[in-house]
Design goal:
Helix 5 packs across helix 6. The protein has about 450 residues and is α/β, with parallel strands linked by helices. The C terminus is likely disordered. The protein contains 14 helices and 17 strands. The chain folds into 2 domains: about 140 residues, Alpha-Beta Complex (Aspartate Aminotransferase, domain 1); about 240 residues, Aspartate Aminotransferase, domain 2. It catalyses: L-tyrosine + 2-oxoglutarate = 3-(4-hydroxyphenyl)pyruvate + L-glutamate.
Length: about 450
């Protein structure tokens, strides 16, 4: 066997065997195939999928299915986007300007369009303060990733959007849940929230308007939240994807903050009714330069892991923001408000149910007085049987770590919402049982 020893420029000795080079250091050889998923993959869990996939969903064959569970406003085809939005996309495609790679943070012109659209004297924005992302979900992912290290903790609303926990836990970040109060239209229990903050709290997540609650915080309540964050020097991740989908005033967190730095996450998905187009953004509000250049540079580096939002949608973004008619926004909000009122008014007269009237987003939460429904173990059992008997699918709030409630999506056609409420009433009348003391009161 022909062996020759040589030294390469990097100082590593290699042995040439029959003309091939390999390091002299002995290596152990694997004896069998053993390919395992990473810890990150194993630690990634979507609570909604975990619960829904475990449910026995078999609709009543005599009744057409009404799905009130899916947070996608396009499902039933009754809420198309505006013609100007479609035209902007067609123009972007026809221009042939957006077929290549964009900068990882997005086209400068598109970032400027977002800045111009949302900038206000209380919270001014420039293009450099905007990062375009693949939907609001990636915006949230980047915000958590840039602010938190493994072993840190973040504060998340309960009930709240399940993605926060899905992302954080996969990164080794602890999630602490602060309570929302249904009796106060889902305001934050500020005392509880503040009690959870410690030296490893790296981020406070505020969802306003709320998914799953449909609540909208008042200006006064937002100011109280900011005082807590300021007192403990904790930055805020503001999930404001539904901020323009409201029937009341909904100021942004940044417009009220004098010192707390805020990463505001939003996107096209809900206001413009195009969730599949995957165009989101982070607005960096850092008036006192607390984030400084490091957080900004960190976000830029993180965007380079994948090259962000679809370039064609980026090319259409200026036209979408500037040309969508106000009547389109008004009609969407009017429809959602009408459906919410129909649903709330109908369900609030059903014994055993306690709906909470929403003010924004696309959702309504309904409390179940389980003492009156002894046939069911919990909200999952209740909603599962509702599908089996009435072909109405509502999402059990256990998916949001808030048992004995269920969430209704109010984007379905109006007549379908009315029919769903009729079926829910029939279901509850069939299974409702008065408490024993209620029976005694009736006998007296």
């Amino acid at each position: 066997m022909d062996q020759r020893i040589g030294v390469h420029g990097n100082g590593i000795h290699h042995v040439s065997v029959n003309g091939s080079l390999y390091p002299t250091k002995a290596k152990s050889r694997r004896q069998r195939w053993e390919v395992k998923p990473s810890e990150m993959a194993n630690n990634t869990l979507n609570p909604i999928r975990a619960i829904v996939d475990g449910m026995k969903i078999t609709p009543n064959p005599d009744k057409p299915m009404i799905a009130l569970s899916i947070g996608d406003p396009t499902v039933f085809g009754n809420l198309p986007t505006d013609d100007a939005v479609l035209q902007a996309m067609k123009d972007a495609i026809d221009s042939q300007k957006y077929n290549g790679y964009a900068p990882s943070v997005g086209y400068l012109k598109s970032r400027q369009a977002v800045a111009n659209f949302y900038s206000c004297p209380e919270a001014p924005l420039e293009a450099e303060d905007v990062i375009l992302t693949s939907g609001c979900s990636q915006a949230i992912d980047l915000a958590i990733s840039v602010l938190c290290n493994p072993g840190d903790n973040i504060l998340v609303p309960c009930p709240g959007f399940s993605l926060y926990k899905t992302l954080a836990v996969s990164m080794g970040i602890k999630v602490k849940l602060y309570n929302l109060l249904p009796e106060k239209s889902w305001e934050i229990d500020l005392q509880h929230m503040e009690s959870l903050i410690d030296e490893r709290t790296s981020c406070l997540i505020i969802t306003n308007p709320s998914n799953p609650c449909g609540s909208v915080f008042s200006k006064e309540h937002l100011q109280k939240i900011l005082k807590v964050a300021s007192r403990h020097c904790v930055p805020i991740l503001a999930d404001e994807i539904y901020t323009d989908m409201v029937s009341c005033s909904c100021p942004s967190m940044a417009s009220l903050s004098s010192d707390v730095p805020i990463l505001s996450c939003g996107g096209l998905a809900k206001r413009w009714l195009v969730p599949g187009w995957r165009l989101g953004w982070i607005q960096i509000h850092d008036r006192n330069d607390i984030f400084g250049s490091q957080i900004r540079q960190g976000l830029v580096k993180l965007t380079q892991r994948i090259l962000g939002a679809c370039t064609i949608v980026q090319g259409a973004l200026e036209g979408i923001l500037n040309n969508t008619s106000q009547s389109f926004y008004n009609n969407t909000i009017s429809f959602l408000k009408s459906n919410s009122e129909i649903c709330f008014n109908e369900l609030s007269t059903i014994p055993g149910l306690n709906p909470v009237m929403p003010s924004g987003a696309m959702y309504l939460m309904v409390g179940i007085d389980m003492d009156h429904f002894p046939n069911f173990k919990n909200d999952v059992d209740f909603t599962e049987r509702l599908v089996t008997e009435q072909s109405v699918f509502c999402l059990p709030a256990s998916a949001f770590e808030y048992p004995n409630f269920f969430r209704i999506v109010v984007t379905v056609p109006g007549e379908m919402m009315v029919e769903a409420c009729v079926r829910i009433r029939e279901f509850c009348q069939c299974h409702y049982r008065p408490r024993s003391r209620d029976s005694n009161d009736l006998d007296q």
